[in-house]
Amino acid sequence: MLQKKAIVIGSGIAGIAIAIRLAARGYQVRILEANAWPGGKLTQIRSQGYRFDAGPSLFTLPNLVDELFELCGENPADRFRYDKLETICRYHYEDGTRIHAFQDVDAFARELDNKTSDTGKSLIAFLNRSRELYELTSPVFIFRSFHRLSTFFSKDFIRALLRLHRLFAFSSMHDVITRYFSDSRTARLFDRYATYNGSNPYIAPGTLNVIPYLEHHLGAYFPSGGMYSITESLVSLAGRMGVELHLNSAVDEIIIRENRIKGVLCSGKITEAGLVISDVDIARAYELMPGCILPAKYRKQERSTSALIFYWCMKGELPDLDLHNIFFSEDYREEFRHLFGEKTIYRDPTVYVYISCLKIPGDAPAGGQNWFVMINAPENIGQDWPQFRKEARRNILSKLNRMLGTKLEEKIVLEEILDPPATRTFRLNGIVLREPPGYHKILRVRDLHT
After folding, report:
1. For position 159, what pLDDT does the model report?
2. How far apart (Å, rounded) are the C-alpha atoms in residues 12 and 172?
3. Which of 249, 274, 299 is the C-terminal boundary of a domain?
4. Helix (H) and strand (E) counts for the chain?
5. Domain tally, the chain
6. d(CA 179, CA 124)
7. Are 311 and 416 spatial neighbours (Cβ–Cβ below 8 Å)?
8. CA neighbor of 5 nearest in space, from 342, 228, 216, 270
9. Which distant-in-sequence residues (6+ apart) come within 8 Å of 386 by Cβ?
10. Residue 317 sits in which domain range?
11. Contact 248, 432 (CB under 8 A)
12. For the whole model, what pTM was predicted?
């Protein structure tokens, strides 16, 4: 029956997850993916014996992945394993302070007592408010659809509405944070959570202070096979459920007849289905529907920040680093002014370094490390990205060398770069081609044995 056939456009994690859920309900599901690999941003890069998780690097809410296996009658522990992190992140400051954000709240509180002018009591009070924000908002904004009228008449929505004053909707994240913390180092630590969805903590609503709850109460985790193992395990599960995954299959059009979606056009062939689900950017989804124009409110909305990522194959090992590391800018507000106001990269960017080989030794050759080095970047509006890359690389190296007391240039044996315009889409003889992130930007290669 056509009504029991579904097409999912895009194989990002959301696309794979919905395909699995539909298959568990008896649908015949086909995923159409434009790229040559599944997972969207959650992919990987391999080069010269090094492996990198190319996209997301922090894992929260693992129960949502476990749930997919359980829906299909499988024990998730048999298929997908992960460990809870004792230290969520290690924060580095120019004055030499090193703050370990322990998973255990009491240990984290003692860390702030010992290393900042703030108190552990303030931390616990702030995280308790973060918990309250989560309990008020998650049943409405995370686990319910705003497309259903019933959401607005639910007890959860009414409860949140009656406590609107508790949601900090009319204060910025930073303003709320500084009610609890006076030390700039602590404030920056929690301001950083705005970057999880590309926001500016000095403008974004205080409600987003819900994010720390996910890490410090619900927990931060690391999959035993790295972040890309999330993609691998879910693709495998989808396959066992009968889901068809078609790579190199860019959808050209969503077919609409009599104001109803009937299927898709892909590679010159129309495939009909009773249900079509898009896992692509909303602007792209509108482009696929002839006669449909992206509403003005979406066109005018400010875009989130992007990212500039350096994948460094390193020889040698450095101490005082953890799985996740942040090296803060001394003027965080100025960094965000450049990102959102000037659409440029600040000369003193906050740098994130993720080293998965500290948990998975096989991700780098013996005596080496794989460094995923990322800074926030403005949205791509046609800036001079080659110049941005050059300046940012110089500033990042200068900052890390200064704060770690080393010369990283001597340790980088291979480098790949992903910048906002790096995943390009173009047409060759009518065929849509996409380049894997990072692969076409191999900018520096040295002999691995020197």
Report:
1. 60
2. 31
3. 299
4. 14, 22
5. 3
6. 13
7. yes
8. 270
9. none
10. 302-445
11. no
12. 0.89
